Amino acid sequence: MAERDPWRTVDAQPDVRAMIAGLEARGGTRAQVRLRARFLRFVPVRRGQRVLEVGCGTGVVLRDLAPRVGRRGAVVGVDASRTILQTARRLCRTHPNVTLRHANGARLPFADEEFDTALAMTVILHVPDPLAVVREMARVTRPGGRVGLQDQDFGMLGVTHPDRDQTDHILRGVVHRLYEEPYSGRRLAGLLRGAGLAHVRVLMDFFQDTTLEPWTKTFLERRAESAVRFGLVDAAAAQKWLDGFTALVAEGSFVFAMTYFGAVGVKPDGRQPG
Ligand SMILES: C[S@@+](CC[C@H](N)C(=O)[O-])C[C@H]1O[C@@H](n2cnc3c(N)ncnc32)[C@H](O)[C@@H]1O
Fold this sequence. Notes:
This protein is an alpha/beta fold.
């Protein structure tokens, strides 16, 4: 089932370029920029820190982090995909405080306690053993430092459509076939606790779109394609479903809201219990 998740094996996908373009389109969408900024303030990431991002993709978050930590700070991105890292290198080259490494989040090539903060943004959803990744993130974080996770929760996605049953059938049907844990967002706090982090806090946030922006449109088209591929609907029904959104946009009543959960924990200082 989960081998259907293309984010687990990016380099083996036939459409890596489209995946890269999708990450950049999402990253540049204004509501997503604000969502990431709220989370980085919540962690918080501060000037002078040494920050790791696991599953950095094309470097959308790295480019947010670079000015935030400043010249005295450092940002390190790791990703399991060599192809995506090539793009990240190109897009991050104007940020001298960013470095990139090829690595699996479950086996990080860093010594214990190297970072002030370790982050994973829309990554835990895709990894086969989330706790192993979060434990590794905790290992490389210094005592008193923070581990922060952010993920969508596909059980909490709301979108207007004239055919609500068909919408539920397609959206729920696809995510349960595509992802091992489509409701990843709500599990992040538990993962942090399971990895031994203390003072865990949760920030629930939303990406909302009322105009069917390009990234949302592509997102819904992908869901429709997957629904056909998984045999949930035929091509004509998938197209009719997509057309339903277009009509709502034309009359100004389109609403799309996707829930993101952020969770942050503190690595206990051995001297005092968390
Ligand atoms: C949806 S993208 C998110 C990229 C970036 N964090 C962002 O928010 O734009 C997920 C990324 O995680 C990477 N990834 C998936 N499994 C991984 C693993 N086990 N270790 C490291 N990276 C992984 C993928 O290659 C992909 O670049």
